[in-house]
Amino acid sequence: MVNLKGNPFFLDDAAIDWVNKTRDAMTTEEKAGQLFCVLFKEAKPEEFDYVYGILKPGGCMYRVVPAQRAAAASNELQKRSKIPLLIAANLEKGGNGIISEGTLVGAPMEIAATDDVSMVEKMAEVCAKEAGAVGANWAFAPIIDIDTNFRNPITNTRTFGSDPDRVKKMGAAYVRTVQKLGFAASIKHFPGDGQDERDQHLVTSINSMDCDTWMKTYGAAYRESIEAGSLTVMVGHIMQPAWTKKLNPSILDEDIMPGTLSPELLGGLLRGELGFNGLICTDATTMAGFTLAKSRREAVPGSIAAGCDMFLFARNLEEDYGYMLDGIRSGVITPERLDEAVTRILAVKAALGLHKGAAETSLETVDQVVGCSQFHDWAEECADKAITLVKNQPGVLPLTPQKYKRILFYTIEAAGGEGNYQSIPAAAKVRSLLEKEGFEIDDFVPQPYGEGFTVKSSEIADRYDLILYIANLSTKSNQTVVRIEWKQPMGADCGHYLNEVPTVFVSLENPYHLLDFPRVKTYINCYSNNDHCIHQLVEKLTGRSEFKGKSPVDAFCGKWDAHL
Questions:
Q1: H helices within 134-196, ranges in order?
Q2: Per-residue b or e along 127-145, where b marks 16 or more CB atoms closer than 10 Å to that residue's CB
Q3: How far apart are CA 109 and CA 187, in angstroms?
Q4: Terminal CA-to-CA distance of the chain, rounded, Å?
Q5: Which pLDDT tens digit goes with each residue over 254-310?
């Protein structure tokens, strides 16, 4: 049932023999263990003891941890495992997806704004080399979702934008690069996020495209990366009703399942229409998008029975492993389906050369690779090419102390989240760099009173030469909206003075703030808030560097007044 010599495995006879003999020698419990990719959030020994006291997993993932700890953990885990592990990370932007010292080259949307496929290849190379230095071998990337709905709270800068062709090309370029460097890519999140305005972490979301439109957009992106040899696909807790009904015309609405539990989408669309032969992994099964669809007892084995090969994370590992074993013993997961899933897991490992044994990670070489000067040069290049001047009021830019000595500085920033979704303060860094340029900057402070008593507009115009907004609102899981929440009283920090004082708005992250500030006449998108973007932003604001980025999305959010 699994073509081990064809795309994406391309195994030779010796590797195929290892896959078959290893699978056939395994007990039911060992096969069930291989289905699990577990989370070692902090990569600490007590976590390893807990997991290995329950099962022997087929794979694992780290959150962001220090490099030396990650490297030591990889060595320890491979020693504990009779069958080498797949070690995964969210390598969407750079090596920062697994290690705290890793290089953030650029968010996918920042990469897309360069309109340069070679920039994707550089980012992917950083991902593979930095994560590979600490023992990882599986990239939960690229994201080939299409940001078709600017209200989606989770895709946003994690995507290559809203142009299906750009997403398709850049996704496939990432796949080819990381797999050439010894990683398995995982194209995600099938059947495609970015359509809904809801987050699959919180609800079972929907891709609402009709079949033909889906195939020309999301389908084309998946087909391109599948043909490029992607070893794995990550399936989301996302429904695709049109394709589900086309493949199963008699299905009732209440029986339509998200991709992770849908035999129509997994077998009919992904394996059938798109011809994918590799490993299918669920997205994190701790998400509400999965748990809301079925009871846990049904859903755990049901995901494998429906066509997934690997089960990502667990709510309670002991309970979920028990549910998986119950599903195998009761026939929910047939022996044939179980062996097919295990075969694909082992085949990915063999395709990575793990059948010859996992190489030991050298702790001495980690520091030589992680955060090297070349990788930071690439991140600087990416920022230089990506920052986009979306709206430009003639005569305002560039900013110089001679022209705009006194600046009123507005900060729109939030903190929180964790791992890849952590919001990092950055506006103060922009302020500091501008002060070093010789600007005199006052932070905007809302007055504690309202109508009839606000400061005179003429006083603001007399006191300041420029108003500068720095917004730093990033998307992260478990939130439902990414919008500007203006300060009290009565939107005190809205653009009340933009007709009195030249005003510039900069978004370090979310590219869609023109929705909430449509009439600002000079607007800039950066797509990332790392130090490289901040440095290049100041270079461009001051006129030492030109704006080169090409917007990968409709930054005007379809609103006619945003063009004013």
A1: 164-180
A2: bbbbbbbbbbbbbbbbbbb
A3: 16
A4: 59
A5: 999 999 999 999 999 999 999 999 999 999 999 999 999 999 999 999 999 999 999
Catalytic residue ranges: 283
Cα dist from 210 to 195, 249, 343, 494, whole Å: 12, 14, 34, 40
Task: Give the Cα separation of 370 and 378 in Å (integer).
Answer: 13
C-alpha to C-alpha distance for 399 and 439, rounded to whole angstroms: 9
Q: Per-domain residue ranges for the chain? A: 13-364, 387-447+454-563
H or E segment at 442?
A: strand 440-443
The pTM for the full model equals: 0.97
Instruction: Give which of 236, 232, 325 is closest to 288, Cα–Cα.
Output: 236
How far apart CA 94 and CA 67 sit, in angstroms, is 14
Measured CA to CA in angstroms, residue 145 lies from 209, 421, 465, 507 at distances of 13, 17, 42, 22
How many other C-beta atoms are found inside a 10 Å radius of the C-beta of residue 194?
28
168 Cβ contact partners less than 8 Å away, ≥ 6 residues apart: 144, 220, 221, 224, 225
**How long, in residues, is the chain?**
564
Kindly state the tokens that stand for 186.
Answer: 């995982």
Interstrand relation of 388-391 and 522-525 (parallel, antiparallel or unpaired):
antiparallel
Which residues partner with 188 through β-bridges? 143
At 389, which amino acid appears? L
- Domain 13-364: which CATH class? alpha beta
Question: What distance in Å separates the CA atoms of residue 358 and residue 85, rounded to the nearest whole number?
Answer: 8
* Architecture of the CATH domain 387-447+454-563: 3-Layer(aba) Sandwich (3.40)
Query: Residues 300, 303, 309, CA angle at the centre, nearest 5°?
Result: 110
pLDDT tens-place string over residues 82-126 = 999 999 999 999 999 999 999 999 999 999 999 999 999 999 999
> Are residues 284 and 319 in contact, defined by beta-carbon separation less than 8 angstroms?
no
Distance between CA 185 and CA 179 in Å, rounded? 6
53 three-state secondary structure: coil
8 Å CB contact between 19 and 4: yes
The three-class DSSP label of residue 275 is coil
Res 282: pLDDT: 98
- State yes or no: cis peptide before 425, omega within 30 of 0: no
